[in-house]
Amino acid sequence: MAHIVWIQNKNSSEKQAKVVYEIKTLDGSRKRKSKTFPTKTPIREINKFKREMESMYEESEGVECSKQTVSQFLDVYFNTYENTLSPTTYKNYHQMANANEHGIRKHLGEIDIKKLKTIHVQKYANYLVSEGLSAKTVKNHIMMVHAVYDKAMKLHMVSSKYNIVSGVELPKIKKTQIKSYSEEEVKKLLEIARRDANEMMYLEILLAVGTGCRRAELAAIQIESIDFEKKILHITQSKVRNINGEEVLKAPKTSAGVRDIPLGEELIKALKCAVRRYNENKLRYGKEFVDSRFIFSNENGTPRKTSTMTSSYKKFMKAHEDEIRYLPLHSAGRHSFASIAIAQGTDIKAVQELLGHSDATTTLNTYANSYTKVKVAYASKLNELFVAKEA
């Protein structure tokens, strides 16, 4: 399938290696290709490439070698790699590819993917900026083009040796200051929730500010996620919406997302009430009960939708704006949890692990402003060393 041919270098007396290999096409035939290496390239590097080409030939289901537009290859991409993308990513990619005004198909779709150049993608990025899309949204669109082109390279649909999308210059994403509640505001929020919220809403707010979990993680908590004896909440999944609008469970993006969060007495008490309510409803509904095991479920056991949890929270908070400023659930819960933990001097590594960040840098960059109080306190303590004590 692949072999090395030694050829004479035109500019010297030395020989250089050329690896000749084959790729499968979709019609079942084979196409021969080759790669020539510079003189003095280590033989181990040449053999490594040869083995990679042989392995790719064995694993490949075939590639289209005739002219193919970006739009046509997008179909190949979605059909081939659907199972390797998370439901959320797959849905978002479909939206970015097929949007009527800003979609990739509309602006790049008719170009032969072999002839797609950096300038084409740069013009597309410039257009998105001119349309008023945020820097983050523009980046998401271009990163999708990057991912698609990367697969085209691996499938030998293009001959480029580097991803041409890498050369596109993107607008800088402006960092926005994290909004969160202070310790006093969290106390006020919980006071309002205890007084006026129903059991489900109180639990939602309490878990959000008491664990720092994302909304999708809260919605995915099941009875088995809770270890009442050790007072630990196991976070192993989140609930997301797929391309068909159905809510499905998915594993965290990184291994750091799988984590254990310690629970205080108030949380344990609220969760025990939720489990008791679930079991009571199970007995009441009998065969009609849907045994989903989700903490956030309706009376008949069907899981509550994440969108319902969000709208219910928003409605509750808007009704109390005269007592406390409104913040979205993510800010009121996760951001407040992290900001307060940092302000209280909690070790950054511990905060990182509780939030499920893959590294401490992410935590530091996200909550940089929360360290102001810590830095001021440190400066005050340091100053005490410099001030001479009076006799």
Description:
The protein has 391 residues and is mainly α. The protein has three domains: 2-59, no CATH class; 70-167, DNA polymerase, domain 1, CATH 1.10.150; 183-376, Orthogonal Bundle (hpI Integrase, Chain A), CATH 1.10.443.10. 49% of the residues lie in helices and 11% in strands. The strands form three sheets. Strands 1-2-3 form a three-stranded antiparallel β-sheet, covered by helices on one side. Strands 4-5-8 form a three-stranded antiparallel β-sheet, with no helix packed on it. Strands 6-7 form a two-stranded antiparallel sheet. Strand 1 (2-8) and strand 2 form a beta hairpin. The longest helix is centred in the C-terminal third of the chain and has 21 residues, at 265-285. The protein is elongated and about 85 Å long. The termini are far apart. The model has no long low-confidence stretch (mean pLDDT 89).
